[in-house]
Amino acid sequence: MKTVVHLSDLHFGREDPRVVSALITAVAALRPAVVAVSGDLTQRARRRQFRRAARFLNALPFARVVVPGNHDVPLFNLFARAFDPLGGYKRNIDANLAPTFIDRPVVVVGLDTTRPSSVKRARVHARDVDRICEYVQQFGPDDVKVLVAHHPFDPGRYLELEALTRCGIDVILTGHLHVSSSRHTAHRHHLNGRSAVVVEAGTATSTRLREPTNAFNVLRVTSDAIVVERHDWMRGQGFVVADRQRFDRSAAGWLPAVM
After folding, report:
1. Angle, CA of 31, 37 and 38, to the nearest 5°
2. CATH of the domain at 166
3. What is d(CA 151, CA 29) in angstroms, rounded to the nearest whole number?
4. Interatomic CA distance for residues 104 and 76, integer angstroms
5. DSSP-derived 3-state class of residue 146
6. First vs last C-alpha separation in the chain
7. 173: which strand partners?
8. C-alpha angle 247/251/252, rounded to 5°?
9. Which residue of 126, 139, 224, 229 is 20 to 30 Å from 242, comparing CA positions?
10. What is the C-alpha separation between 134 and 114, in angstroms, rounded?
11. Helices (H), the chain
């Protein structure tokens, strides 16, 4: 079994230091194979915020796959936003906007969905979908292919979601909404008879909450089953498991199991 930690929407610049410290402790105890971070590492893409985010990541001595979010694009520096929108992210976090990780059966691939011309909206290029599909198709049917992106694949991204699930993506990790959830794609869409697991993360460290508390996700992955845990911040206790769901592989893809 492999453990994947899924963090999102760190928003350094609006972080809670107590939660940051507890999160480092919690992730270290889990000893994950990989930490996936689905964007918005900063609040306003400022240099000092990127540096704080980088220090946090460096405190986690594990492999990681990190992608940017819309908050990692400058909002007020219009010149940088137009000509070097992810310059701060590349200099401080990762110059590679298409990171990958392999520790079979887990295969992870990152997707940059930022759209510098828009404050919040997503962009998914057809060439990126083709790149991801070409990459994951080299792995076998027992491997679990995980996509990390910032923006959820809402109905406006249906065609991209269909293409990704058709070519073999098993799990999609996203953030952006600051609301935790996990479900299978058949819950909303019927995608060529194949269902993937969609896991959205709340904000791991920010004070900009849209649910009762900070949270992150943990995935326990085998070739045939995925258990998704939501870990919630509880003052005085640190992060504790608040919810657990299991999905089993079937001929129709991944379907929820009764636990």
Report:
1. 150
2. 3.60.21.10
3. 28
4. 42
5. strand
6. 18
7. 148, 199
8. 70
9. 224
10. 22
11. 17-30, 47-58, 78-83, 87-92, 126-136, 158-166
Domain that holds residue 193: 2-257
Cα–Cα distance list, 119 to 74, 86, 153 (Å): 9, 13, 17
Over residues 33-82, the pLDDT tens digits come to: 999 999 999 999 999 999 999 999 999 999 999 999 999 999 888 888 78
CB 34 within 8 A of CB 62: yes
The encoded tokens of residue 51 equal: 């540096």
Threshold 0.85, pTM exceeds: yes
How many angstroms separate the CA atoms of 99 and 156, rounded?
25
Length of the chain as a residue count = 259
Amino acid at 106: V
Calpha distance 182→178 (Å, rounded): 13
Look up residue 142 and give its two tokens: 């027992």
Number of domains observed in the structure of the chain: 1
Contact predicate 32/101, CB 8 Å: no
CA dihedral angle for residue 217, residue 218, residue 219, residue 220, rounded to 10 degrees: -160
225-253: average pLDDT: 95
